[in-house]
Amino acid sequence: MKPNALRIGIDVGGTFTDAVAIDAGTLRLIGQTKVPTSHDHPDGVAHGIVIALHDLLASVGRSAEDVVFLAHGTTQATNALLEGDVAPVGLIGIGTGLSGSFVKRLRSLGKIEITEGKKLPIVFEHLREADDGPAIEGILDRFAASGIASVVVTEPFSVDDALGEDAVAAAARRRGFLVTSTHDITSLYGLSKRTRTAVLNAVILPKMFATADLVQSSIDAAGITAPLMVMRCDGGVMSLDEMRRRPLLTVLSGPAAGVAGALMQEKVSDGIFLETGGTSTDISVIRRGKVAVKYTDFGGSSTFLSALDVRTVGVGGDRWSGFDSTARER
Description:
With 330 residues, the chain is an alpha/beta fold. 34% of the residues lie in helices and 31% in strands.
């Protein structure tokens, strides 16, 4: 390992952007900085990331060439769901006969409250056959006319045979839509739960796709060429390209990173972990040196999003919201 090698972590929160530097050889914390998250800047949150990186490198006397690894965490997906700051979604259900009856029931997903007084913004369309080109184009025309940019494609048993979802998804991508196919989100059975999970991914996809571009541009502007990894809600990491495809995996990634730090640095074996940010507060429990991982609940319905068992509450505003990761099978 080269001398002066650094590992850097950046967390973009609703209020502050934090950056820390760790010696890559000893894993010792050698510097940290905090700047306001630059929501209102023309360059968005990218500006705050650049400022934080420059301040951090200057404070430890290192250069961008010394950075060998960069980890990025963000609460934007969590905050978007807590605050209802989401995009409308076009939901295409594929099927005839009994399958058609099942997919038509998915209209009811629009009844799920994403936050108090605001429901999931879903426009449902039924497609009988996945190879019906004119019907597909008609649906996409109606979505475009409604200002919809994000589309979910769902079909019963697509985890076994994804050809139908793939064909419709390809047509939507050719038209410039951001697309989530349910079999790309999870390989588990359960049409309704799989589709709910895909819809949650889709409602934050436009915002998080733009965020990924901003993050990459800020890293490039800072002169850092080290690989960039993004925190996942289960405590792992993923590439920025994967975040562009499945941003839902970053929901609750903030507490995942915090708990990981407590386990590694503080050697916590049993306790309650509380992390309060500018927009939300996360609460989790450590038992026997581990944090439980469960499927998340959203709007009173379970999903296939596997994350740490965390309760997140929206505080500091004029309302209270909740995102409960405790699974309830239905």
